[in-house]
Amino acid sequence: MSGIIVTVAPTKKPLTLAEVKAHCRITHTDEDIYLDSLIDAAANHAESVTKTALMQRTVNWNLDYFPCFTMEFPVSPVQSVTFVKYKHPTTGVLTTLDSSEYLTDTISMPARIQPAYGKVWPTTREELNAVKIEFVAGYSNAKDVPFNIRQAMLMMISHWFENRETTISGTIMQEVPQGAAMLLHTERVWAL
Length: 192
Hints:
Elements: E1 2-8, H1 17-24, H2 32-50, E2 57-63, E3 71-72, E4 78-87, E5 94-96, E6 102-105, E7 112-115, E8 131-137, H3 147-162, E9 168-169, E10 172-173, H4 178-186
């Protein structure tokens, strides 16, 4: 099993309030706080659907052991790996693996990590969260977030702004506009 914890949250948003207001054709400031909350909701939904970290953050990835030779990161894009640590099998001491012992592929989506040529992952202590990998994920600039994700977010925000309660069209609940859902689907990061 594995778990991820964001230890340093993003300091930027993938859309500015000005972009959202221009898209929604809003010129007053009465709804700014509400619109800002919709940006957060749309970003959370987009990240959930696409398995993408939209804005840069630091993530701790905890595993019970090294599950396989090549591991795929749980979120993309990965910018860098800060450390790989494991609990020594006999002493239980958290040991940092030298960066020359592993290779990180940040080009692939999802990004991957594996032992360097001729190396293997070390044996870990048999206990929960015996492996800890810290990495930086997400885009450093909002303009680098894929266009389809940004456009889907604008569509969701506009829809949610106009329809503040659940809407029903026939028997299908329309929480996320179909066009936005389709755009997000095109950007989903699939396991290799």
